Amino acid sequence: MSDNKTVSRAEAILNPEDQDLLVSIGIGIRAHRIQSDLSVRALADRLVIGVQTVLRMEKGDARISMGYYLAACRVLGLQLIDPVLLSRQSEHLNLTRRRAGRRTDDEARFK
């Protein structure tokens, strides 16, 4: 018998590595929530979302907005992105754009 589960557009465009990453983030959120002694309801209330959304997020559901994943990580003190590395990558991109004669986003914004 075939599985008739409807696949969302977000799920359809994710490659397996991206889906694995979302599942890993969800596992991290759940682990940090439990370690912080927060119930699902308490985290949902802090994020102003439903309990079912938190449960789906903890499973790595691609239909949940990345903003909610990031907000949950912030609330739980879970760092997903290395800000120093991100800053270096941004600086490298701006330098590359300048060398190519293109304006950076900052230069265009403050002109």
Please give the number of β-strands: 0
- The CATH topology name of the largest domain reads 434 Repressor (Amino-terminal Domain)
- The CATH class of the largest domain is identified as Mainly Alpha
Domain module tally = 2
Largest sheet: none
Question: H/E series, N to C?
Answer: HHHHHHH
Q: Please state the structural category.
A: mainly alpha
Helical content stands at 55-70%
Tally of helical runs: 7
- What's the CATH architecture of the largest domain? Orthogonal Bundle
Q: Explain this structure to me?
A:
It is a single chain. With 111 residues, the chain is an all-alpha fold. The chain has two domains: 1-80, lambda repressor-like DNA-binding domains (434 Repressor (Amino-terminal Domain)); 81-111, no CATH class. Helices cover 67% and strands 0% of the residues. The chain is built from seven helices and no strands. The model has no long low-confidence stretch (mean pLDDT 82).
